Sequence to fold (815 residues):
Amino acid sequence: MNEYLQKRRNENVILVDDDPDDRDLFAEAMNMVDPRVHVTMKRDGEELANYLSQESDIPDLIFLDLNMPKKNGRECLADLQKNPRFKSVPVIIYTTSLNPVDIEETFKNGASRFFRKPNSFEELKEILNSILFSELTLSGPRGKEDFVLSTKASTQR
Amino acid sequence: MNTTKEHIIDLQLELLPAYAEYILAERLEDYVRTLYAFSLELDIPLMKFFASLPEKEILRMSKEGAIEFLSAIRDRRVEQYIETSRSNWVRNQLPRISREDVIVEDISLINYARKRTMRAFLPDYTKTPAEALKVTDEIDRFILTLDATLVKTYLAIQEERLRLSNEQLQKREQQLLEAQSLSKIGSFEWDLTGSGKSSYTPEVFKIFEMEKENSLESFLNDVHADDRLKVKTALEKAMNDGEYECEYRYTRRNIQKVLYSRGKVIFDKGRAATMVGTVSDVTEKANLIRQLLENQELSKQAQALTNLGSWKWSIESDSIEWSDEMYRIYGLEPQSEKITFQRFLTFIHDDDRNRRIAEITEAVRTGNASDYIMRINPHRGSEKVLRGKGRVILDKAGKSVGMLGTCQDITNEYNLTNELRRKNEELLRKNRDLESFNFIASHDLQEPLRKIQLYSNRILGEGGERIPEPLMKYFRKITQASNRMQKMIEDFLMFYHAMNTIESVESLRLNDVVAEACVGLKNAIEEKQPSFTIRENTALTGSRKHIVQILMHLISNAVKFSRAEAKPEIEIVSGREVAADGKVYTTVSIRDNGIGFDPQYATRIFELFQRLHSHDEYSGSGIGLSLCKKIAEDHHGYITAQSQPGVGSVFTVFLPES
Fold:
């Protein structure tokens, strides 16, 4: 089991995504992978910023979409990295396209992992599973070669 | 000129020395006066050189001469005396007169005067007739000898003069000929009667390219056909009024010349006898004049062609000199009016006038002018934009006295630049539009597509058993179609990203780039197991990332379109090729033994979304080859395809070397 999940009792995960379908699918998949994890949904960067400024708890993990109205994921990532309180919270980019520019930029700006919204529900579950239960080290130094997460299905595509 | 020894007269004087002694001692004053009187009586020509002197002075000089003369006789030094007289004369050491002033009469008359004077005192000296005769004889002998010597000397001097003047004459003639040759002028005396003789300086023959005298007909034949009548008319006129002058073109021995001739006809008893004149070769001068005229014309044409005019402004006289083209630029007839500063200002566009005045004022103040651009309203025609360069003219004290410069009508250029700027802005805007389109394609278009895929997959996965088989087939079709669409969008994006991103080219080893391309094709290569032959003849010139991309597509195609019955064989060869225009390309060709295609599609396969096969035969979006073409063209190169159905295809990429 992942180190941080072992340490913490109340698993607290935030998903920032403007797409309601994706939020539902994510919640559903997360519930199926590990029902103990609590997912807080935020629709854009602004909502996230408001939430974090009021909440005393520091989240364990943030899933961040890149293209959102108001404040987008790139800006959120930059803000989180600048804030000493949240600097150590792992951020996983969760977005539609595998744009090389986005991958390069978010890697540079301190995101932990990058994964593309999958085409099937099974793949989504597979990835969330690997994040929560594999031996992935999300915080600390990471290599460029394992920055982008993939499933067997997504490599074949 | 030693002539004294030639005579045979005996100058052994016996009595004369004593007589001379007598005159010297007793009668010297009388002697001098008598000699002077005789000289005047005989009207010796040489005397005129002494006419300006007072008589006393003449007598004093005569006395000196007499003492010398008589002493020489007394001392029996007559031969020495004769020699001294001669040599003084030759060496031009005569008192008051120069060597050439002495004429032959002077010699005989002076000696006659001396003889008579000597004799005059003889009756007082001796009463002995025999002695008197003897003295007279000795006087005669002496004077004769002196006379002969001096006449000979005179002749020798004249002879030398003649020789010298002859030499001078020859020298002058030589100089004249040389001068004629140098200035290409020849002179002639042309006999017009037909019976006399003509003479020509050598230069005449040179000018006419002849060895000897020619007939008039032959000469006229060598005159340029268009100038022949002119020469004839000039000659006819000369026969009437005596003056000849003509310039004409002349060709002989294939040498073309322009000749200029002047002459005077000399008439004898009303008939033209001789023409004396000169002829000169003025070809160089004529060419120079022609070139100058051409240059002047050229400069005018050049100004008109470039719309470049020149101007000069003199502050003191408030006048502006304009070249013809300047007038044309301002819509005026060349030199049609006088331009003052005020007049010039009236042409300038209202919005530019004050600025231009300020610029000129500043230039005059500082002595430094800068380039300018201004709009004008010409006298005729619509608004123009002018660009000019100017320079301030300073006087010796460094004060600005005027300006000069050039000016060019750049209206077209200016409009074109504006148009270009507008087009460029439009292009930038379109590019931004394309950017947003790219964003839409990469995000918004994919978003719903992914949902279709995702929900279809969920239906297939979770409700599989409850859905009847025909409906299941439809769901699978939905999934396949959406997968294909996603692939197309992804390829399209790749195509878009490949645009204009070639930043630098480098020298690439074929083996390296092929190996790199194969990494991305691992699955396909493992599946079909093709054999590779790689022959690197030269390094490739290109952007690594893009060349790898091209190779990936071409190798992928070679694998994909293999024939079921033959194991894929792929041959990759690099080389160098010189195009028809001399440009050097590095090339890489990928040859396969696959299904090939009909050569008529060799161009069409490179078009975007063009496919030769249906989706159920071969997968693909129809973007790969257009991407290859795009990359080759971004390298300023190109790509070609050759094929034979059932045998295989060759794709060759041409990349400019450097």
Observations:
- The radius of gyration of chain A is 14 Å.
